[in-house]
TrEMBL record:
The gene is LOC106722454. Residues 172-208 are annotated as: Disordered. Keywords: Cell cycle, Cell division, Centromere, Chromosome, Chromosome partition, Cytoplasm, Cytoskeleton, Metal-binding, Mitosis, Nucleus, Phosphoprotein, Ubl conjugation, Zinc. Belongs to the IAP family. One of its GO terms (molecular function) is metal ion binding. This is Baculoviral IAP repeat-containing protein 5.1-like. It is found in: Chromosome, Centromere; Cytoplasm, Cytoskeleton, Spindle; Nucleus. The keyword Secreted does not apply. GO terms for biological process: cell division; chromosome segregation. InterPro entries: Baculoviral_IAP, BIR_rpt. PROSITE patterns: BIR_REPEAT_2 (PS50143).
Amino acid sequence: MTTALVKVIVSQQQSLQMEAFLQELSLASKHLIEFREMYDFENRVKTFKNWPFMGNCKCTPENMAKAGFIHCPNENEPDVAKCFFCLIELEGWEPNDDPWLEHAKRPSNCGFLSLTKNFDDLTVEEYYLLEMDRLRTFLCKTGRSTIWSFEKEVAATRKRLLDHFISKHQYTPEPELPVPHHAASPDQAPESPNIHKCKPQHSNESKS
């Protein structure tokens, strides 16, 4: 492989990485705006269109919405629910799970969950402070996730190029630079963009 061809491949990889990075930022911006409408109880309830627990149970759409959750299903996990405020995700629900209790036992310090009055009774100043808290939480969590994903892809591209040179030219790579502390391990990063993922006790993960 010529040097010119390597430069082309690197340039293409960088373009793909940047495109993926910008797509994540775009999606995060979209959610940041959309979730502002989820202060409204009815808007949260409307997200539970295909929720598997509709009656004769504790985790009905209404109870889920009261606890701040919105329904965010995917192909493999149809019962994923996310708090619109602190962004914590829970899945693996069972009929007797209490949404409020499941939310409260997670270390999310959710500002919405700690409200001492109904949202409609908040003063303008109280709402402003609450919204600023939501924005800080959102930007912090989505920022960490997006940066980690970008750095992970950059590292993978570098490894592919090194593997090629090692096999073709018996190239000896330089020692690896220290990994940034926030990207040191996938276990320390969200499993999906902008989200801390955890499951209720009844699921495959045990509660503690």
